[in-house]
Amino acid sequence: MCEVLQVSRSGFYAWRARPASERSRRDVEVTELIHKAHKVGRQIYGSPRVMEQLNQWGIPVGRHRVARLMRQARLQGRSNLLFVRKAPYLKFFHQVPNRILDLQVTGPNQVWHGDVTYLKVAGAWRYLAVIIDRFSRRVVGWSIANHRTSRLTIAALQHAMRNRKPAAGIHFHSDRGIEFSSLEFKAKLRQHGFVQSMNRASHINDNAYIESFFHSLKIEGLFKMKFDADKPLRDEVLSYIQFYNQQRLHSSIGYLPPAVFEKQHLTHATVH
Asked: Does pLDDT of 185 surpass 80?
């Protein structure tokens, strides 16, 4: 080794005997904290969220240092680049306009987004309907069933109503699927004073907020999982939603969990 490096043996062993530098010792400490932050984030956080988590714990550290130490520790987040296959798309004839395009959302329970995706159990499809609050990105209601009908979306809506107990006037936005355009679902919206809004034709990004949630669920929560029965799937979906609402750091709301973001907003509104 000494011959390869062209250094003397005495110099080499003197170098090995030197105490670790302050920077090296600090790197070891920060790496241990990075492991903890990565674990708290269910091993899904990349360097931006790990850095934010450490900063929220009162540990000031830069993103580049976190990225370097994560590479050295072979830790990485999960990519959100997932192709999400939609449930079979059924068109309807009576169209509803997009009423939220220019709407300014300033608090919770002003705009809710709903959508349906599908998951597999023992080779058969299960349909998951989810409703989120646009302001905080919080999941406020959901339902799973083996059918894609208005009964599924009405169950998710009723779940959201029980959770939030909102006043009338909320805009409810969705795509143009039959489960949201049915007479039964429209009647339920009118009964509770909702204003219905739907995607413009060929504008799937009109409902991007909830599409983003489905990406996160499938990559971060259900990645590579297989289910042989309904209960394990339901339990995993519930576990991820609880994590998503209460713990997961969201870059779009200042790297806060939705529940914390809502609480801060309500506290600020009460003070002022």
From this structure: yes
